[in-house]
Amino acid sequence: MFQTKHDILPEQTHDEFAREEFCGTMRKFFTETLWPGNNDVYQGKQLPQFEARHGRKPQTRSEVKELMEETFYYRCSNLFGRVAQEQLWDTVGESIERQLPSLIEKARPKPDAIGSLELHPEMPMPKYIESVDIHVMPGNFHTELCEGDVYQGALYDRGVYYFAYGGMGAENDKLGVAMAGYVKSAFPDFKPKRIVDMGAGMGFSTLPWKDAYPEAEVYGVDIGAPMMRYAHARAESWGKKIHFSQQNAVETNFPDGFFDIVTHCLLTHEMPVKEIQRLFKEAYRLLAPGGMMVMDGGKHIKQDPDHELFSSWFTNNVNEPFASGMGRLDFEEALVKVGFEPDNIVYSGPMGPVYLKGMAANSVSGDKAKKQSAWGSAYTVAIK
Ligand SMILES: C[S@@+](CC[C@H](N)C(=O)[O-])C[C@H]1O[C@@H](n2cnc3c(N)ncnc32)[C@H](O)[C@@H]1O
User: Of 307, 300, 304, 296, whose CA–CA distance to 354 is shortest?
Assistant: First the structure.
């Protein structure tokens, strides 16, 4: 398995490659085999026992949780998933530490850059970013330990590749490609002039918009300086003209009506509901009339309590404290609150998608994703 090379992708020695592959296969085994087995344990044993005891099905997520915690399988698979994830970051991190000084040098903006990089070191970090290492990724998205630091960016680029065991594509960009492709095919006459990707990270979800609309000016915004430095160097190395800036997506410095598309991918599940609401408000402000906010996630459908439990695995086990809240948020209601008309909200996909239904959200793609309706398999477009 190989990622597409770019100038600041960390190199791997033979042993680093072997260890990182091992971590990737552990995660894959967890998401594709071990964790889904919980469904069999629940349906085959725990649910019938509960029904026999109480004459009804469990009604809440905590009832299902209590029931599953009686089983060794559930407790053990939670532990395995947590350890596999911690081990992945630690293993990838070792190889980045070894070559960090050279990565920092390579990432320094060049005078002949085609895109741009704007940093705001004075910017306050939101509490929800500072107080928890999301995904148990040490240092989260924002930590800087030295001048020009790109460690978090490199960790995320290589780490996500193994986290999904290549499932996000050789450029970790499958979700971005799918979202931009969906908008292009669903709205063939729409010709956006300016596009911004909020929570752009490494640019996985940003660059596909430049490929889909080469004439458009494309911007990427992220809260983390190490992410933006790394994203800038990565895009430059592939000759993609993108304007990256370190900003809080809920209060950016762009003028009203500046964009035709405001997009975000894998951002809302990391934000408290109050901040998601602010993000939608900011998107509405930034859109020109007729512009679109394009996001991952589909129409809200109330989940069964067992699905609610299984889809809150990330919240319960690997420091994604807000993923469950986001899963219960009715996006349509939240979008209407900031000014979008209900009739101007369009959902992709034929199957009434749900956020995070089932487990394995990060490992499913293609046909499996269609069946499971997980992350990345559904999009919402709100037109101003
Ligand atoms: C899971 S990553 C997704 C990155 C990218 N969109 C992708 O699809 O790969 C979430 C990103 O959102 C950023 N983020 C979180 N809160 C933010 C905020 N309030 N403003 C801007 N970026 C934010 C994080 O720094 C992180 O890079």
Answer: 300
Instruction: Please check the confidence at residue 184 and state whether its pLDDT lies above 70.
Output: yes
Radius of gyration of the chain (CA): 21
- CB within 6 Å of ligand 1 — which residues? 126, 129, 141, 175, 198-201, 204-205, 221-224, 227, 248-250, 265-267, 270-271
Distance separating alpha carbons of residues 308 and 258, to the nearest angstrom: 38
Q: With beta carbons less than 8 A apart as the criterion, state whether 116 and 221 touch.
A: no
| Reported pTM | 0.92
Expressed in angstroms and rounded, the spacing between residue 23 Cα and the centre of ligand 1 is: 24
Residue spans per domain, the chain: 14-116+124-163, 174-383
Level-2 CATH architecture, domain 174-383: 3-Layer(aba) Sandwich (3.40)
Substitution candidate for ligand 1 out of 222, 252, 279, 286 with most atoms within 8 A of CB = 222
Distance in angstroms (rounded) separating the CA atoms of residues 153 and 117: 14
Rounded CA-CA distance 228/223 in Å is: 8
Beta bridge partners of 198: 221, 264
For residue 17, give the nearest of 33, 31, 3, 32 by alpha carbon: 3
| Tens of pLDDT, residues 236-271 | 999 999 999 999 999 999 999 999 999 999 999 899
The pair of three-digit structure tokens given for residue 14, joined into one six-digit string: 């033979």
Query: Which atom in ligand 1 lies closest to the alpha carbon of residue 141?
Result: 25
Structure confidence at residue 282 (pLDDT): 98
Residue nearest to atom 12 of ligand 1 (CA): 199
Q: What are the start-end ranges of the H helices in the chain? A: 14-29, 37-41, 47-54, 61-69, 72-107, 127-130, 151-163, 174-186, 207-212, 225-237, 273-286, 305-311, 313-317, 323-328, 331-337, 366-372
Q: Whole-angstrom Cα distance, residue 88 to residue 22?
A: 9
Which of 201, 217, 88, 218 is CA-nearest to residue 153?
Answer: 201
Give the pLDDT confidence of 68-113 residue by residue, as tens digits: 999 999 999 999 999 999 999 999 999 999 999 999 999 999 999 9
Predicted pLDDT at 349: 58
Please state the atom number of ligand 1 nearest to the C-alpha of residue 176. 8
DSSP 231-262: HHHHHHHTT--EEEEE--TTS-SPPTT-EEEE
Dmax over CA atoms of the chain, in Å, equals 72
